[in-house]
Amino acid sequence: MKRLSAALVVVVVALTLAGAALAGATTYAGPWQWSQNQGAGSSFSSSWKYNYFFKNGSGHDATVTFIDNVTYSWHATVRNTSATTYTYWFVTNVKRGHCRANSAYFWGSCVVVN
Amino acid sequence: MVGVRMTRRRRAIVASISALATAIVASSVVAGQFRSPDPEAFHVGLATGEIARVADIAAGDGLPGRGVFVQATDTGQICLWDAPSASSQQRQGGCNSVDDPLGGSALSASLAYDGGPAVEDVRDARLIGLASRDVATVQVLMSDGTRREMRLRKAMLESDEYRAFGYRFKRSDLRGGVGPIAVIARAATGDEIARQSTGIGG
Lengths: 114, 202
What we know:
A: 1 helix; B: 2 domains; 3 helices
C-alpha cells in the first residue's frame, strides 16, 4: 500500500511538472536593445501557439510571425507599433516563432507560448 | 626597467578591468530600464475583461468576414484584435496601456497577413485600427502609389470616443505585388496628423 501511495505521488508530481512545462512561455530573444531590421527565431516545435513581442512602450514598429519547417512560409503575421505585438496560430505543424524589429533603438523581448 | 614595465602592465590590466566593469555596470543600468512583463501573467490577463466589436472586415475573395475587437483587460491593457469572433482564440493584434490606448499617437493600426513574406505569396492581408476622434479620414498608401480609403466607425472606449476601421486588401493587389506601406490619418481640414509605416515582409 505504501509503495502504491509513493508511486501515485511520483506520478502526480511528474504530471504536474509536465503540465507546467506544457503551459510554459519561452523567451527566445532579448530583452535587449533592437536594431532596425534585426530578427530572431525560436526553436522549431509543434506546440507553439502564441508569439509575443514585448516592448518598452508604444511606437516601436515590430513584427511577429510563425514560420513552418516545410515551405518556410510566414503564417499569422502581425505588424504594429503597440507596446505588445501578438499573434496566435494553432496548428499541429512544426514551426518556429519569429520576430523582427522594423525600427531601431528600443528595448524588447520575444516570447513563444504553448 | 623591469619594474617600470610591470607598473605599465599593471596599469594596463587595471585600466582594462575598470573599463570592463564600467561597461558591465552601464549595460546593467540600461537593461534595467526595461523589464519585460511576466509573459505567463500577461497571457493569463488576456483572458480577462470585456471585449467589444467596433468594426467589421468584409468577406471577400472567398474568405469569410472577420471583426475588429477592443478588449479592456483586468490587468490594465487595451488590446485591439482582428478575429473571427469575440470568443475566438484566433486573435491577432496588439495591446497598449489603458492609460494610452493609441500609444501616444492619433492612430494605432495593425496589419495581419497569411503567407509570404513576398507580397505575391500572401493569401490574405487585413488592416485594423483605432484613431482619435480628431481623425476625419484614414488612408492606406500602397506600394504603387495608389491609396485605399478606410471606412471609419465611431467606437466608445470607457467614456472616450474613437474611430475604428477594418479592411481586407484585394487579392488582385497582392498577386500584383502591391502591398501597403503606410497608414495616414488626416483631420477634417485635410492636414496629416498621424502616419504609421507598415508593410508585408517586414
